Batch of 2 targets.
Target 1
Amino acid sequence: MARVVVDVMLKPEILDPQGQAVQRALPRLGFDGIADVRQGKRFELEVDGTVDDAALARIHEMAETFLANTVIEDFVVRVES
Amino acid sequence: MARVVVDVMLKPEILDPQGQAVQRALPRLGFDGIADVRQGKRFELEVDGTVDDAALARIHEMAETFLANTVIEDFVVRVES
Amino acid sequence: MTSRIGVVTFPGTLDDQDALRAVRVAGAEAVPLWHRDRDLHQVDAVVLAGGFSYGDYLRAGAISRFSPVMETIIEQAKGGMPVLGICNGFQILTEAHLLPGAMLRNNHLHFICRDQRLTVENAATAWTADYEQGQEISVPLKNMDGRYTADERTLDELEAEGRVAFRYTAGGNAADGYGNPNGSLRDIAGITNAAGNVVGLMPHPEHAVEPLIGTGGTDGLGFFTSILKKLVSAS
Amino acid sequence: MTLDTVKHASGTPDAEQPWRELGLKEDEYARIREILGRRPTGAELAMYSVMWSEHCSYKSSKVHLRQFGEKAPENDALLVGIGENAGVVDVGQGYAVTFKVESHNHPSYIEPYQGAATGVGGIVRDILAMGARPVAVVDPLRFGAPDHPDTRRVLPGVVAGIGGYGNCLGLPNIGGEVVFDSCYQGNPLVNAGCIGVMKHEDIHLAKASGPGNKVILYGARTGGDGIGGVSVLASETFDDSKPAKRPAVQVGDPFQEKLLIECTLEIFREKLVAGIQDLGGAGLSCATSELASAGSGGMRVELDRVHLRDATLSPEEILMSESQERMCAIVEPDKVERFLAICEKWDVIATVIGEVTEGERLEIYWHGEQIVDVPPRTVAHEGPVYERPYARPSWQDALQADDANALPRPADAEELRAQVLRLVASPNQASKAWITDQYDRFVQGNTVLAQPEDAGMVRIDEESNLGVAMATDGNGRYAKLDPYTGAQLALAEAYRNVAASGARPLAVSDCLNFGSPEDPDVMWQFAEATRGLADACQTLGTPVTGGNVSLYNQTGETAIHPTPVVAVLGVIDDVTRRTPIAFAEEGQLLYLLGDTREEFGGSAWSQVVHDHLGGLPPAVDLDRERLLAEILISASRDGMIDAAHDLSDGGLVQAVAESCLRGGKGARLVVPDGLDAFTFLLSESAGRAVVAVPRSEELRFTDMCGARGLPATRIGVVDGDAVEVQGAFGIPLDELRAAHEETIPGLLA
Ligand SMILES: Nc1ncnc2c1ncn2[C@@H]1O[C@H](COP(=O)(O)OP(=O)(O)O)[C@@H](O)[C@H]1O
Ligand SMILES: [Mg+2]
């Protein structure tokens, strides 16, 4: 069993009202000094067997076609150590 | 400017309907060998100045009281390199 | 013989019964279609109804678009079969890349349910011929992820080709349904593909086909009478 | 840990057991030992403790609730009464309607989104279990002070949870309430109601009969949700300082519930079940023991067959788990295959976990070893019953003596105008559109009326236009001043709201939200309120068909206001005859129906202007309510009125303001002889409504009122774009709209 993480974030040019709402609330809660907040998704995949290059390539494809919508989102795939 | 990432995931014992829906869809899309999927949130915070221990402690508190709902979620704070 | 219009039920589709009713009210034969079934049962057109297919999990429409029925619909839509995507159906159409752009969380981050004023910008599609260009109509709107977005180039292209089918009408009171309800770029409420057979929009014309029910108007009926006329004249 | 089997329990009579931690009292534990003739196993102890909790057993309230049955009015419409998952009434044309209101107060305070969401999920499954298709939901809500920081946490979460779950299920939200009062600060009330429709022959009951029939658990997998939730949450006050006691929160999956609904309805259509029960509080403990108890008694369950989300759960935990979106059905053996096929079609997991047996014992096995062997009736239906002591509180007289009618009144027209504006802008009177716009009210395409109308109304037959209406009401301030009258006023208001929409009130469900039953003051409030409600139901001819009791709503020693929430269901033969609240046609005449007296005790005015609660609530005259309802229904059926709005908190001016804003038209009002402007506008006398009458119908309408003896006073006309009170003041609609509509977004957005 190995864990692969896929992080999906809205592209920088896309308005992220969730992140903005968080950022706007921070000063009210007494937290200053945060210049920007973006909110995205994190997927934790438990993979059967070992994660070799072939497996990673498949997960990359899965992220590209399914986990992220590349019209609006970027993604990163990493093997969790 | 430094980037701090807060990952928020549902606690393991809490039902994650989103992750389950994703996992159930995978075989249909031709992706096998994924034993489990959990979906959580990823916050990217752009922090003014340097991220010292005091700043990290503050962000930790922010995550605990605001970014995560600790009744049902766990979180991890990390400085992005 | 009247035309057969199919309405797809995915797990979590909610407005399929309403869409079937709207098809009937317009005088066509309503045919329920099932997501696992590749066969479209000789329908002449398809409505992808509103709701929360697969709970809107991952992204609205993201899981449904991979269902067996969609494989056939995608193929036939490319061949000219009329397809109308309402709300979740619109989201499925963008996820399936039959229509450009994507739908994002409303800018106020809430689900919104209200009467909505729309301006018909393109009265030449398969689903809008019974309206006048520039006509204002009122139909219910209800969604969580209704903010239309696309990159600038795509938006310019849509405008230039007259493919913005509906815009949120500006200029009046929000209480009367005017204004952009969710931050959609360029006030876009619905678009069409270049051929005019595939149309998607966020508001719900199928909820505005009978007096008394819903908003109490029949402004949405035109979608269903438009397609019926088109199909009848083609046959 | 060794498995605590029945055999093991018999051999170790003196083993220590955590009955106290599970919320049982010493004598209750002793009784369990007596019933079983030995000490209970861990699994049995879990079952008894959760089923004998206040929440499941109604042990403190039972003796009072009996009145609803004893005093039930003769009513041919009642098909299924109290005791089943929900009551069922006949609405004609072969249709039956089932409806019920439930509370999810404590979970919603801990985790507002999930608490409220699973509250909706639970009540919908109750309705489904009766054999009905759920067609609408309502959500009566109470929160703490609107400007309190915790309200900003709780309210948006609750609203998002109700919307998130209900919208995703495809059930229109057609009504409810939002009330703020600091008494609910640590105890918000999240009540949720659901209406379902079926044909008479489709009514299903929760009972397991027919030895050899299979017990099928279907729906979501079982996880660690809310383990101990029922007993810990409902039998003790939630105490913030002990986070360790916080039980695992239940998380809802509305998508799964939608599949469960469609799957179950298809199963009903093919007549595949002999008995059915939803899994709610107390999970499998409740479902198996209730099904067996209501049937012939015998059932055998192989607990290890239950599909788990978490493989480490112990059998006790599986029995207590409150995982959502599950149902339990009793199915004849030759129908099992088809049953499972339908579940597969809808992607719903289903498992045969046991069968109905000849005997009278509920036996549960874990990998072949017996861990439960009990008479199911002792678990489900023969739990403890308490006659809790109660007495009129020592402070009640002083509270009633503190007369609101004696409070300083506005000195002149200008001050009256200012107070009226403050009132329509106050959080309790302001428009709730910011909240209700987050709910889908159109889905299913049958909604005739929804917020902000007096009652929600849905069409149930497309051919005949048969419809049902529902309103929920409850005024905790009135009930605090006098719980007997307060409960009757709650019923009267909901009844009036339904009639104002044009529907005939038929039956009642209630959700009784009170403090700790161990406090004699609270118990008195509860006793008085139930007595008041039962008496009033008898007089109005509307039986209580079911409901829910929520106790221990208190923070420390301080209880919430007694808050009986009453839902009235009505029927309308032709929804095209429904009456909206909007004043939409200029020139129509406004009539005030009923009598206006000086009644300010518990009023919105006394709260907003004086922050005062004292005196007596408005008087109740149930015969008058009945007459008013008859007139409103006849007038709507015969086309004599175009709009109607009942008068309640905020009085006449509130109703007129709402009707004007809804229709976008103003009104000119004249203060009737014998009344001063202040009393005319702001008194909260019950039994009243304002109606808009087309001029052509005036004579017919006033003749009818005159002949039937209902006071009808012409008070003005629909006209212009302001609310004008002749000789006093005017408020332009724009100013009124801003005052009424900006408050809630200002507080919460
Ligand atoms: N939480 C809610 N959910 C749905 N509808 C609501 C809610 N709160 C208020 N409403 C609706 O808003 C309208 C006004 O509510 P209210 O002033 O309490 O009515 P009334 O005084 O007639 O009982 C009604 O249509 C009511 O059903
Ligand atoms: Mg009312």
Target 2
Amino acid sequence: MTALLRGGVFDPWQELARIEAGLVKGKHGACASFVGTMRDFNVGDNVHSMSLEHYPEMTQQFLDNICTQAARRWNLIDCLIVHRYGEINPGDPIVLTAAWSAHRADAFDACRFLIEELKARAPFWKKELTDSGERWVHDTPGK
Amino acid sequence: MTALLRGGVFDPWQELARIEAGLVKGKHGACASFVGTMRDFNVGDNVHSMSLEHYPEMTQQFLDNICTQAARRWNLIDCLIVHRYGEINPGDPIVLTAAWSAHRADAFDACRFLIEELKARAPFWKKELTDSGERWVHDTPGK
Amino acid sequence: MQLKVKFFASLSEQIGFTDTTVDVDKPATVSDVWNLATGGQTMPVNTLCAINMAYARLDDSISNGDEIAFFPPVTGGNA
Amino acid sequence: MQLKVKFFASLSEQIGFTDTTVDVDKPATVSDVWNLATGGQTMPVNTLCAINMAYARLDDSISNGDEIAFFPPVTGGNA
């Protein structure tokens, strides 16, 4: 189980290939993964870039913790979270979650659990730079 | 929308990277993907290799068709299926399904729909080479 | 009318061939095609069939030039 | 007892700083720490808090050496 915070651009497919290269061949029948990428629009506005603030120690603990929870709840061979922080541009990957298992139901359910928990409760705060200036997304009506 | 049948080993992460390189940047916020890999065990036996027979024209039509169905049912930017046929060894990827969307629920649901439909009805037949010889998997008790 | 008939996987091993052609001179169903093509062999339970690459039922009617396929339950992947 | 206090995102912009230290001489809750650290500023609705990097409630008791954090609702990713 690996949870990584990254201050610069990462390639989700390379991260997945790297983890998989370390797994024993022939044991995992299933890998489900999710990649969240920065869009250039949100709540009707053009978004030029964003800045993702986090609470380093708490964020790391939170991500480690949801990996542990997933491994307790489903039959997993491995799981992975990679999350960006700092300045992010449209098209950049923001988050990757993945789960490996013998069977696909466990892989899908764990992968989705990781991203849903992360979105709901991981300590990240997003400030967007739009046509009309900077805004914290938690202050945006409708978000 | 792309559905590919491959007679040789493919790298799922390269396939995903290649499709993504062709997408307009900043429009898809979400990519969900699933990779099914050949295990070296099944129904309690060691499996040394397998041979996956298909019905080329029907299989291709079937895969194209479930992509079209997914695109009708969910709000997708793109989707991808890659599937092996022929001789396959443990550790080899057998199938990749992926869906890109603005939002994660559509991406997850479409990706899972593709693999579930494919497993339930795509015309593929698997013959395994185990310790005790060759066997068609549809003849195996418990499968 | 002339029809192409295909058998796949364990079914083709049982029947002894993968492809054949049959001639039918009156309205017929997929079932009739099985009997003509296999010389009246017993059809295994769970046998599936397709007309022109689309899943079909054994009592569906067939037309001139159709491709009829018979196969066992599908077993893609293993995850 | 001495406590480290942290503020994040829009909350730190409103308060005017990101870090401070407070001294408390009697049993206290997270709410009390907010009042001491901000000089009694009004707490925005939906403010979340953590004790030692774990989510907590405003009426939870604090201990010597704790790190208390206040932050707005989280907003990871955008998919």
